[in-house]
TrEMBL record:
PROSITE patterns: OMPR_PHOB, RESPONSE_REGULATORY. Residues 124-218 form the OmpR/PhoB-type domain. SUPFAM superfamilies: CheY-like. This is Winged helix family two component transcriptional regulator. Keywords: DNA-binding, Phosphoprotein, Transcription, Transcription regulation, Two-component regulatory system. Pfam families: Response_reg, Trans_reg_C. Residues 124-218 bind DNA. GO terms for molecular function: phosphorelay response regulator activity; transcription cis-regulatory region binding. GO terms for biological process: regulation of DNA-templated transcription.
Amino acid sequence: MRVLLVEDEGRIAEDVTQALKAAGYVVDVTGDGEDAWFLGDTEEYDAVILDLGLPGLDGLSILKRWRGNHRRFPILILSARGSWSERVEGIDAGADEYLPKPYHMEELLARLRAIIRRSTGQANNLLQVNSLILDPKQMRVTRDGAPLNLSPQEYRLLSYLMHHAGRVVTQIELTEHLYAQDYERDSNAIEVLVGRVRKKIGPELIETRRGFGYVMSGAEFSGPA
């Protein structure tokens, strides 16, 4: 899962970035409003964490531009502007969540997981395909109750496919959501990565649709809300 963090306070940006990476996300970071608007308008993200007080272009204007251009990724506003009227304004402008500063990092991560879950049509916090279960909070994957040892990149691939289980996902889409903006992307990397994951979870769960992409088959979702 790929996240854009828009935050101009260096210490906060560093702390949130470290927490996101530790939670398994790929992170692009900017503290400039114009740069943030451009990234969100041209790159593919699973979610955006957006501060409102930014140099160049304020967060609320960025949010309205994105929604006006039909950018549908979920957005979590993270801001010191915490009055009820400002929260209402942010939500009405198109934000999915509003978390005032100061905040607890665990709450930020929980709200991020929730908006990503909702944006992909999942109601529960555990993803299940047959006997394969992924717990986004614990970053834990099991099959038939036995834990699987996945690399961070293998986990991100599996997480994305399971969030979108039952839908064909192209190689281009996977590349856009698994790698940061400055990563040198190899055209064969996704095929190799899928092959590694298949060896660990079983070849039958990821189906190749020739000329189209990949799909997690036999999708069913389970777990407490």
